[in-house]
Write a structure and sequence with these properties.
The protein is of the alpha+beta class. It is 28% helix and 36% strand. The chain is built from four helices and eight strands; from the N terminus they run αααββββαββββ. A six-stranded antiparallel β-sheet has the order 1-2-6-7-8-5, with helices on one face. The protein has a two-stranded antiparallel sheet with strand order 3-4. The longest helix has 20 residues. It is globular. This is Thioesterase. InterPro entries: HotDog_dom_sf (IPR029069), Thioestr_dom (IPR006683). It comes from Shewanella mangrovi.
Length: 151
């Protein structure tokens, strides 16, 4: 059994350590939902690719079986938040202002991936475009657009 994480008091220090070491486990460990769905992060140069491993607890339709739409949306939202935190070196967790998702096809019971693109960054608001796929980046299962308040 793992020990519970200490409360997160210094976000900026944690984010700086993550950006330096590329070890996202501690950051994800402080986000109960990300930890619950099994989210992982891989860094390739200046790009982050987020992974949602196949997990029976994330299934919404056992007949197909397919991922629950809320799990897909939550995974994509958490991906955008972590992307902003790492690349903008935030001192606080960005707050969601608006999140809009388009489901394009069923997300089956297999690993899913997401990539985020910060499309506009103002002084206080950032816009992020998120794409989610499983087998091929050319066959997206969902896309989303999100706006975040950054302090």
């Amino acid at each position: 059994m793992t020990e519970p994480k200490q409360p997160l008091t210094d976000v900026k220090t944690l984010v700086a350590r993550v950006a330096e070491t590329n070890d996202f486990a501690d950051l994800i460990g402080h986000v109960p939902y990300a930890k619950f769905i099994g989210m992982q992060v891989n860094r390739f140069g200046d790009e982050l690719v987020f992974q949602l491993p196949a997990n029976d607890d994330n299934i919404g339709n056992p007949v197909l079986p397919a991922l629950h739409g809320g799990v897909i949306a939550g995974f994509m939202e958490m991906s955008a938040i972590i992307q902003l935190m790492v690349f903008m070196q935030t001192s606080k967790v960005p707050k969601v202002v608006d999140f809009s998702i388009d489901y394009l096809r069923a997300g089956y019971h297999k690993d899913s991936f997401a990539e985020c693109h910060i499309t506009r960054q103002g002084r206080r608001v950032a816009n992020v475009h998120i794409e989610c796929w499983q087998t091929s980046r050319k066959q997206l299962i969902a896309t989303a657009r999100a706006h975040f308040l950054i302090e």
